[in-house]
Design goal:
This protein is of the alpha/beta class. Helix content is 26%, strand content 22%. It folds into two domains: 95 residues, Immunoglobulin-like (Sandwich), CATH 2.60.40.1220; 338 residues, Alpha-Beta Barrel (TIM Barrel). Helix 8 crosses helix 9.
């Protein structure tokens, strides 16, 4: 009987034990699938520009994208996936062959992205659309100058610029250093055709008047205007490097070794503010002399503000007015605009200069706003690729469809005939002056020699001084 009881107890124990929950496994927990955290561009992004882009997917853990799986990733609509790579938490996909106005969906089937334990991410779909590109004919150019109640001559010049924009381009030449028409005269003497616009520079404002520079003597500008040429001007705004600097010869517009602050200049009571406003008062008086003569000025101040902020070098601004970023720069531009308005200046046609060379490096964060700008300029050096220059032109008008776009400085670029034929419909162009002051025909000009000018004037699209309507100067 005892043996039967023991046997029954053993059976009961085994039954109870078999019904108990198994103990927790001390090994690693089952692997989880990688989860997408974000993408650039984001899903549903619109109005992207360019014919290629780099897509970056970011996951919640380190991932792999096995080479054997990459051919399963698709984009469709004729676009091509050129390269796929994975590093840490990111997967990068380079896509080309994108077309304006089309929508694309990049599909990553399950298994094309995995964790380090080979656990596959679920299928991922990222859709985006490309912007319908604006052309010159599509642009709706502002009919009025941003200056209220401009002098009649300024309005007449602006209306003329609007009338030729997209169909012809005006030639221009920069003064040698500051206050002369040496470059324009050299071009005219050697080619028989004078540039339509002579540009001047108020770079020596702090020294004027002096026996070597006097912006109060407007005869170089007035003579050019009376000869039937349009007038442009810029301002390399040189400032003291420190509050104790008093010698204008040591002033600079560069960022290096310069403590002059944009934000401080906009604050009343600072030495920078005092210097800024005294400079604005001085230059306004000089510009007023031209207004009194009925001479409008294509006015291009505070140029190239972004510098290399958005280019592949990302080295920031090279002029002090852009050194503290976009917001401070825009406030400075608007301060100048309003100061001149209060001073009664009504002869200016305002040109803002972009550094944008493609949709990828656009600097329109620095753009002061449509109400403060009449024309967008672009400065280009050492680029003989006419197709690329046309691409730069196209990239800019996407951001400024209501403004005319000009090649506001150039040097060492494809001639204007080649650029025009490639589709670069610049409003005007202006080679920088030659540094060596050698005005022979065969001289190897730093920026645009006579051979370049002859090739440019060879285009029927290029306007010289003699082709300007005489009614502009009445």
């Amino acid at each position: 009987m005892k043996r039967i009881s023991v046997l029954l107890s053993a059976i009961a124990f085994a039954f109870v034990f078999s019904c108990q929950k198994p103990e927790e496994n001390d090994g690693p927990a089952p692997a989880e699938k990688p989860l997408l955290v974000s993408s650039v561009p984001s899903d549903g992004a619109e109005d992207l520009q360019g014919n290629s882009l780099e897509m970056i997917l970011t996951f919640d853990r380190n991932v792999l994208c096995p080479t054997a799986q990459q051919n399963r990733i698709s984009v469709g609509n004729g676009a091509v996936i050129d390269d796929v790579s994975a590093y840490m938490t990111e997967v990068t996909v380079n896509i080309s062959g994108l077309e304006e106005g089309r929508t694309y969906t990049v599909v990553f089937p399950e298994g094309t992205v995995t964790g380090y334990d080979n656990n596959p991410a679920e299928e991922i779909r990222i859709s985006f659309s490309m912007k319908e590109l604006v052309t010159v004919g599509d642009q709706n150019i502002s009919e009025n100058l941003v200056t209220a109640d401009p002098i009649p001559q300024a309005k007449a010049v602006y209306d003329y610029l609007r009338s030729v924009y997209g169909s012809r381009t005006l030639s221009g030449a920069m003064s040698h250093v500051a206050w002369n028409t040496d470059e324009a005269d050299w071009v005219g003497e050697k080619t028989g055709e004078y540039p339509a616009i002579a540009f001047f520079d108020y770079i020596h404002l702090a020294s004027s008047p002096a026996n070597w520079i006097d912006y109060g003597d407007i005869s170089p500008v007035r003579d050019w205007w009376n000869a039937g040429g349009l007038v442009g001007a810029g301002w390399h705004w040189n400032v003291p490097r420190t509050s104790s600097e008093t010698d204008p010869n040591n002033y600079t517009c560069d960022v290096a070794d310069n403590t002059f602050s944009v934000s401080d200049a906009l604050q009343p009571g600072t030495w920078e503010n005092e210097f800024m406003n005294s400079s604005l008062e001085k230059i306004a008086s000089y510009l007023k002399l031209l207004q009194d003569e009925g001479i409008p000025v294509i006015w291009r101040p505070l140029h190239e503000a972004a510098g290399n902020t958005y280019t592949q070098w990302h080295s920031g601004a090279w002029f002090w007015w852009g050194a503290e970023g976009a917001q401070a720069y825009k406030e400075l531009w608007i301060h100048m605009f309003e100061y001149f308005r209060e001073a009664g200046l009504r002869n200016l046609i305002w040109v803002w200069t972009t550094q944008t060379s493609s949709a990828a490096d656009a600097d329109f964060e620095f753009y002061p706003g449509d109400e403060y700008v009449d024309i967008i300029g672009r400065d280009v050096y050492d680029n003989t690729d006419a197709e690329d220059l046309a691409s730069q032109y196209s990239a800019i008008i996407q951001y400024s469809p209501s403004k005319m776009v000009a090649l506001s400085e150039l040097g060492g670029v494809a001639d204007m005939s080649a650029q025009w034929n490639a589709g670069a419909r610049w409003l005007f162009f202006m080679p920088w002056y030659d540094y060596d002051n050698d005005y022979t025909e065969g001289y190897d000009h730093d920026h645009a020699d006579i051979a370049w000018w002859k090739a440019s004037f060879g285009s029927d699209a290029v306007i010289d001084r003699a082709s300007l309507p005489s009614s502009l100067f009445e």
